[in-house]
Amino acid sequence: MRLLLSCVCCCALVSVASAQQQWVTVKGQVVFPADKQIPQPAPLKVEVDKKDCLAKGAILDESILVNPKNRGVKNVVVYLRPDDDDLKTSLAANEIHPADAKRKPEEVGIDQPCCMFVKRVTVARVGDTIVVKNPAPIAHNFFWDTANNGTHNPTVAKQTDWKMPNALVKEPAPIQYKCTIHPWMSGYVRVFDHPYYAVTDEDGKFEIKNAPAGKFRIVYWHENGVRGGAKGRAGELIQIAGPGATMEMKPTDFDVSPK
């Protein structure tokens, strides 16, 4: 009888502890430093399939996109990780919002309508599948070489799609993909094993929903590097406040110029 009461008491404590976890929406903006000149996208050198690739005008370099109106930086991947210097550490199960358990794997599309990848920066979850679309009147190629997600190099014929044969697995490093037919075409995929990530929009703004309240790290990744350099890979300390709040962060300076 004492053993039974002990188990009931233990289960009740676990239930209360779980109910006390608070979830917060974290919002912010990544901006280009005020003391630096905003980079201007330059036309790319197009020497293959000019007629089709340049049908809508010059193709501009999208490696750095800064909004001149508010200095917001586009295509920065912002994500949370544990408060730990070990990059292999993952978030605990009780730090993932319960609703995430209902999430089903998705098909993540990468388009190439006019000799540029759309989106240039793609985020996905473990279990998702990449689908490469080619609505263009010319053939493209999709090449990537990864540690954990294989090497692929298919030719994607005009107005067809190509689906990656395997679902994505965890890949800590960013994955760069290219079109070897049109060498100026490039993009990136980040694969996460949790839901706490976002990509900044045209104004440099991001939103991470249902983040756990507590002490974590936040990472700002751009294709030209990580905010804070090598040390920034482990992230910057963030205290996420609850309960049920929307946490508005101050604008974050990030010089995304090539290092």
UniProtKB/TrEMBL annotation:
Keyword Signal: yes
Keywords on record: Signal
KW Calcium (keyword) present: no
Taxonomy, superkingdom: Bacteria
Signal peptide limits: 1-19
InterPro entries tied to this protein: Carb-bd-like_fold, Cupredoxin
Protein name: Rhamnogalacturonan lyase domain-containing protein
Origin species: Gemmata palustris
